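Late entry, written up from scratch paper. The run itself happened at the end of the previous shift, but nothing got recorded in the book at the time, so transcribing now.
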Amino acid sequence: MNNSQDEHIILSTKNLSIGYKTKKGISIISNDINIQLDQGKLIGLVGANGIGKSTLLRTLTSIQQPLEGSIQLEGKSLSEYKPLELAQTMSLVLTEQLISKNLTVFELVALGRQPYTNWVGSLSVQDRSVINQALEHTNIIDLKNRKCYELSDGQLQKVMIARALAQDTSLIILDEPTTHLDMYHKAYILKLLQELSRETNKTILFSSHEIDLAIQLCDTMIVMTPETVFSDAPCNLISQGVFDNLFPKDLIGFDEKTGSFRVKK
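Output as recorded:
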């Protein structure tokens, strides 16, 4: 693969402004957002509670319209995508999944093939192959016949990631994929995402409160602050002092040497 393909930009924003339009006027959450998501990279979106991470993800996934600026997906304006075309380019894993837990793992992962079966078609040999590959990639092939209500939160999260893989999109976006998980499974899921981005060459963007883990595992991080949005490699963000001002300094400080946050004594 040559350098131009290595550096292929999957999604980019230009002077993006996000927020809400209400009867009282416009509420701007953040503006002048200029980011790019490169192919095959793991990107972490972090920031304090209420800073606007979910609003940014909703805007990038066309659930919510931008106030200003533009979003390019695979070199084409996001606003030009039809729903089916978008579902074949971008897959989304939400924090709270509206699913029937009475489905088996295989059946749930198979829902990822709906953009290709037009919602009513039966699974082809190719579809089943893609589904089984997704189960293999997420290490849940042994769970394929289990009912989803029998699974732990960590297992169910892997199933949702497998469904996104089965959707076979260039970009996978996950909204806080480690919510409700213990420390071990938080690390496991984020490490799995890192491995998947490298093995499948898919671009994976996730929002998280696990900033220490994201610093260790991500190729790029997007850091939202009240003033601006930063995007760079974790080591560069550390050297720029971006994490020093992420939280009020009275209780938590950032240790540049360890790349982690510490409670002040």
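The chain is about 30% helix and 25% strand.
(Scratch paper discarded after transcription.)
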